[in-house]
Write a structure and sequence with these properties.
This protein has 455 residues and is of the alpha/beta class. 25% of the residues lie in helices and 36% in strands. Residues 1-14 have low confidence and may be disordered.
Length: 455
């Protein structure tokens, strides 16, 4: 086996044929509006052409093979949005009936019929990005594409070239929005390779407060591709909670970039829940650009079958007196795989940094695997930074402890697994969102045929 692996590692990476993308872009760019976006889009396609799809020889991708995605006949969704199928999927979606504004997109296209934007405080703007680019072009121009860097991210570059719509939120300074604002993306793709590329922009002004839920679900099970980018800008002293929920079709591919720029004394939480897709990867980059802020990155991935869920993140401490806490738990079954790569980067100026990073993986099957790489890169000398990672099955001592108190073996296992997921869910601050997530994850775990079986 070692010999085979060595042969593979010495082979020259096979770059995919990028001509279809370049040809599609040459037809696509003539219809682009507004004009100021055109140079950004051209830069995106040029960078994508340079980078191509990552391979296992790329250090940041050595545990995640996107070759099956690169082999798909990738193309924009050809059919008009199917609101009937989307409506049926939406009705079954656990967040669908939460109060508050919601924007619904079907195959990346805004559905006014399924959306509801009302009851917002004065000055709060919630709309699809395509409309906002017309109505609020100058405002968006000042915020757009400043943080989702494309220099080493081929998928962000591809999105920058081809995105057509997505969600836009602007909460002005001093305004609080009590109910969550939702972006719901529903795929009704029918053919393998159909590609959806949403772009989202969330701007929270100074002293504002809001919760935004960004969700991805499916009506059909085909090997389509979602490639999404979300940029988050939090002003000084803003309190922002962002929840990304991914439960796409088992055959789908999901690549996501979340880029956040955080202001002084802000308090920002970014949660990632990855339950679906054949292969999913979420790239998170948070720049702590103001003093005295707190950032929490929190995630849970549940995988089964041959799913792969990957989280890759960089937290850049660029100012002193900031705290960042990363907590990611994975529950892996069958032959599935979890990947975690977390890097805390502390600049020389960022004295008094307090950074913690934890990744824990619970394997329910002997065939499940996890690859984890917590990393610290510190250039300041007055900091508190820790990291840790664990991979293993349920602790026999914990099971014994519960059984010694009269709890049966099956219930003991169930309690420990739910508690493991609950560590992550409990950090969601918005009560109704947390309760819905708790129920959904509970039901998903209870449906697992290994839950009550001893490994």
């Amino acid at each position: 086996m070692l010999k085979v692996d060595n042969q593979i590692m010495t082979q020259k990476p096979q770059k995919p044929d990028l001509r279809p993308f370049l040809e599609t872009f040459s037809r696509f760019e003539s219809a682009l509006q507004p004009a100021w976006l055109l140079p950004l889009r051209r830069a995106g396609i040029a960078r994508f052409a340079e980078l191509g799809f990552p391979t296992l020889q790329d250090e940041d991708w050595r545990f995640t093979n996107v070759a099956p995605l690169a082999r798909l006949p990738l193309q924009p969704v050809a059919e008009p949005a199917n609101d009937a199928a989307a409506k049926a999927a939406l009705e079954k979606y656990i967040f669908a009936h939460l109060p508050g504004a919601r924007l619904v997109f079907v195959n990346g296209q805004y559905s006014m019929a399924l959306s509801s934007v009302q009851g917002l405080p004065d000055g709060v703007r919630v709309s699809n990005l395509a409309a906002a680019l017309v109505a609020d072009s100058e405002f968006i121009k000042r915020q757009f594409s400043l943080h989702a860097l494309t220099n080493d991210n081929a998928f962000a570059a591809l999105n920058q070239a081809f995105f057509t719509d997505g969600g836009f939120v602007h909460v002005p300074a001093g305004v609080s929005v009590a109910e969550p604002i939702q972006f719901i993306f529903i795929s009704t793709a029918k053919q393998g390779g159909e590609t959806i590329q949403p772009r989202n922009l969330i701007v929270a002004g100074a002293d504002s407060k809001a919760t935004v839920i960004e969700s991805y679900i499916s009506a059909d099970n085909v090997a389509y591709f979602t490639n999404t980018v979300t940029e988050i800008v939090a002003g000084d002293n803003a309190a922002l909670e962002h929840v990304k929920f991914q439960d796409e079709a088992d055959a789908a591919f999901h690549l996501a970039t979340i880029a956040a720029q955080l202001g002084r004394a802000s308090n920002v939480s970014v949660h990632s829940f990855a339950l679906g897709a054949n292969l999913s990867r979420t790239n998170i980059r948070a720049k702590l650009a103001g003093e005295g802020l707190e950032c929490i990155l929190n995630g849970l991935y549940l995988t089964r079958g041959e799913q792969l869920a990957d989280h890759h993140m960089i937290v850049e401490h660029a100012q002193p007196h900031c705290a960042s806490h990363e907590y990611f738990n994975g529950i892996l079954d069958d032959k599935s795989k979890g990947v975690f790569h977390g890097r805390i980067l502390v600049r020389e100026i960022a004295q008094k940094t307090d950074a913690k990073q934890t990744n824990k993986n619970l394997l329910l099957s002997d065939d499940a695997t996890a690859d984890t790489k917590p990393q610290l890169e510190i250039y300041a000398d007055d900091v508190k930074c820790t990291h840790g990672a664990t991979i293993g099955q349920l602790n026999d001592e914990s099971i014994f402890y519960l059984r010694s108190r009269g709890i049966g073996a099956d219930n003991a296992r169930r309690m420990l697994i739910h508690a493991f997921a609950g560590e992550i869910i409990a950090r969601v601050k918005h009560d109704s969102v947390r309760e819905k997530l708790d129920k959904l994850v509970w039901d998903r775990l209870e449906a697992n045929h290994h839950l009550a079986q001893k490994n």
